[in-house]
Amino acid sequence: MAAVLSVGALLWIVLDLVKMGTSQIDWEFLTSGVEESGRAGGIGPVIKSTLLILMCCLLVAIPFGVGCAFWITEMVSPGSRLTAWLTRSVDLLASIPSIVFGLFGMAFFCRILGLGFSILSGGLTLACMILPILIRTTLAAVQSLPPDLRLSATAMGLRKSTILSRVLLPRAFPGILIGFTIGVARALSETAALIFTSGYATRSPASLLDSGRSISVHIFDMAMNVPNGATRASASALVLLLVILMINYLANYFSDQWLKKVN
Amino acid sequence: MFRHRNDRGLKWLLSGVALICGSLVIGIVGFLLVEAWPVFSSGQIFAFFSDGAWQPGSDREPQFGITPMLLASLAVTLLATALAVPPGILAAIFQIYYSPKWLATFQDRAMELLAGVPSIIFGFWGLTVIVPIINQIRPPGQSLLAGGIVLGLMILPTVSLTTRAALQAIDRSLVYGGAALGLSRPRQIFSIALPAARSGILSGCMLAMTRAIGETMAVVMVCGNIAKIPHSIFDPVRPVTSTIALEMGYATEGHRSLLYAAGFVLVVLTGFLLLLRRREPVL
User: Fold this and answer.
1) Which of A37, A58, A77, A148 has the most CB atoms less than 10 A away?
2) Which residues of A touch B158 (CB under 8 A)?
3) What CATH number labels A12-262?
4) Structure ipTM
């Protein structure tokens, strides 16, 4: 019963959105500009802003996440105070509500760094948000590697940097890929952290310092602030849902593959 | 160990990166405090918790009580947890002890997908489907109940997936021992497996609550956003997160500090839940 209920809920949501949204999605909708605050036209610029925000976010978050994980495994002795401090603060970071990231991003990136409401501020805010995911998955991936690997590489007199880039990184790559996909899904679905960092602008962004709304902000704005916007919003919601489901499916697929290989 | 120049450079680079990652959370909390400082220094912090209403923009008689919103946040979270925990646990039990393998795999996939559905979609769906249904029972529809249902659905996969993991992690021989004693299947599950997995299940529920209390988009769309203490589950409410999301856009100096203070309260709440989760002894 309970299982049916839970699975049924998912189907209910998906079917509802498909019913409301499919008739409105075509190529035109995905590419043309937003008109009459979304009641007409398409979501072309919105998709562009979303992708740019995502790009900024990943370009910053991946090096930091992976670097931080490697620092924990390679540079400090396990169980040291520093590691404990770092894992604890990453845990805390993961539990912070996304709206608080929005508040922080607005104060730090928009005002103090002077980036204003821009795609860059939004991307950096999201980067802070998905950092814990990347650190944890990379950490899990590196720690699951057999210790002989590192020992024999060291015994061969390889440099630390060579060991990292040639031996450990390629082996940990599948795990990092999982973190990457989960991070992308998380960043794409985020709204609260973006409203006050990337802003609401509907025109096509010309640079990273322009304001641009992500697709989730678009759905929010349409459903809440535009009268009769809900029917149109369902099309955008369907697009977002399909993309997210696909990415999550990929993440599951990757982790299944990886688990098979590890075992 | 670090004889090569590359290696030393690498060490400094990674240390710097790790330092930034580790201090990020301190930076965030620090920023909240700095931005909220006027609230603390002017003594408004007392009004923050004692005022009965929230009218920070009013010229004549501004009131800064966060209590209605805090209560709303707690009420919505508790309702969502109450709605999500029983089916979540039962679904996990079904999956492990009763369901055939193909169905269990399917349920796994479905749960993982449900866990990944963006909150804005839950909110949108709640607004267009759940709210009209509640509206027919008792207007206006946007209510504590709607928020509870939508959030409940949202955290259901968290509860179910963590419960499943906890049940799988218990020592199998405990359950086999129960079976050997001739206990019935339900008795094995409810008297042996569940108590053994208790701490894992509890920490899963805490995780779900953390998610629910910090959720913004779903509740902003379905809760009605009226900052009053609710008297029934059909009353519209406005949780702390919604308040920040709704008012940040037009907040002026003093008002903004209040919102940052509200954000700080949220961090304290989720941090507290994290501590509780840690305290649970791991069996």
Assistant:
1) A58
2) none
3) 1.10.3720.10
4) 0.85
